[in-house]
Amino acid sequence: MGLLTIGAFAKASRLSPKALRLYDELGLLTPARVDATTGYRLYAPGQLEQARLVAWLRRLGMPLARIRELTGLDGPAQAREIRAYWAQVESEVSARRDMAAFLIDHLSREDSAMPHTDRHLGIRYAALSDTGLVRENNQDAAYAGSRLLAVADGFGEGGAPASAAAVETFKRLETGDLPAANLLNVLEESVSRAGEAVHEIAASGPRPDGPDGSAGSEVGTTLTAMLWTGSQLALVHIGDTRAYLLRDGELSRITHDHTLVQSMVDEGRISAAEADSHPQRSLLARALIGGPDDRADMRLQDVQAGDRYLLCSDGLTSVVPDAEVRTALAAGDEPERTVRELVDTARLAGGPDNVSCVVADVLELAAPA
Q1: Nearest to residue 257, comparing CAs of 313, 329, 193?
Q2: Which of 2-6, 99-103, 250-254 has the lowest mean pLDDT?
């Protein structure tokens, strides 16, 4: 079979002539020959497979720049890149779905403000933070109050004040009414203020590039916080501190780690088992540093009487298996005793890092007379 005209090639590849001309200009799909007299583009039948791949990738929404990189790879490498791209898409769609659910729920409410406590449900809570057995200082911060539950894990030379500042910023939500229709804006504003507070702490200390020639370190913090609305818990999460839910004896994690290793798991590059022992498992992809990428996940968590929530730093989850965490939570002890048991378990496992835990139980309250 001889060379195909752009019209015939477009029909066979399901790409429009306009798209083919664009892809030629971008170096993505170059014609086999361009007629010197007419300027007509001519394509070889052997180029159809690549053209069809480009067409499918465009239908997936893959950017042209990424397609150009992919077309130079062999089949298995192309498969890995498509898997990685789609994992990224699913992650972004999941975040948008949570945000849409958040907005729908609050815009559907008739009440203009959320009361400080609910007449039928309430929470009891406890928080505990421990330095561990190896670290000299505690860079974690943990807090539990009538409305706010929070754990933050600071890093860098100003890690301790950074985590404390983030939690203190959110503690302002402990008092006053929260407009139901404005909850999302309130949470976003709190994240922004927390980032600004962290940035101020970082600016007051050694810079990462060392202004005096010495090596500094980036300052920031993770943050996982839950705000009790009286009937639901609004979750704010950035970094690798975690939130878990124990319901009907089943333990589930309700946050997603923002780490480079977790992104590798999401993209199918490594397994979850490999991630547990990966040497770079603590490297964060997102954290509060007071920059433009301080983007936190936010969602609403429906609650039931009998639910038990755990917020914790990686000083617990890096050394204590989920099965042991579940056993401690399911024992049904008071929150004060449970947080102590979890911290002690981490210390018995070597306590290589600071460890912080917040436990909160959702209780059914007696209806008012």
Answers
A1: 313
A2: 99-103
Q: What predicted TM-score, i.e. pTM, was given to this entire model?
A: 0.74
Q: How is residue 363 annotated by DSSP? A: E
CA 77 → CA 65, 71, 74, 82, 333, distances in Å?
Answer: 16, 10, 5, 9, 51
Reading across the β-sheet that carries 242-247, which strands appear in turn?
A: 121-130, 355-364, 308-312, 242-247, 250-253
Q: Tell me which of 3.30.420.40, 1.10.1660.10, 2.102.10.10, 3.40.190.10 is the CATH number of domain 4-72.
A: 1.10.1660.10
- Which whole number is the average pLDDT over 70-87? 87
| C-alpha atoms less than 13 angstroms from C-alpha of 136 in its C-beta half-sphere | 1
Asked whether 127 and 143 are in contact (CB, 8 A), the reply is yes
Fold type of domain 93-364: Phosphatase 2c; domain 1 (3.60.40)
Other C-beta atoms closer than 10 Å to the C-beta of 26 total 13
Mean pLDDT of the residues in the chain: 87
State how far the Cα of 220 lies from the Cα of 79, in Å rounded to an integer: 36
Across 30-39, b (16+ Cβ under 10 Å) vs e yields ebeeeeeeee
Question: If you write DSSP's letter for every residue of 137-167 in order, what string do you get?
Answer: S--EEEEE-SSEEEEEEEESTTHHHHHHHHH
Model confidence pLDDT, tens digit, residues 187-204: 989 999 999 999 999 998
What does the alpha-carbon distance between residue 357 and residue 315 come to, in Å, rounded to a whole number? 9
Sign of the CA dihedral 186, 190, 192, 193? positive
pLDDT digits (tens, 9 = 90+) for 14-65: 888 988 988 888 888 889 999 888 889 999 998 998 888 888 898 888 888 8
Closest CA to 180 of 230, 218, 249, 141: 230
Check whether 316 has a pLDDT greater than 80. yes
Q: Which residue has the tokens 């139901």?
A: 180
| Residue extents of the structural domains in the chain | 4-72, 93-364
Write the DSSP symbol of residue 126: E
- What mean pLDDT is predicted for residues 113-138? 82
The distance of Cα 236 from the centroid of its chain, to the nearest Å, equals 10
pLDDT given at position 277: 79
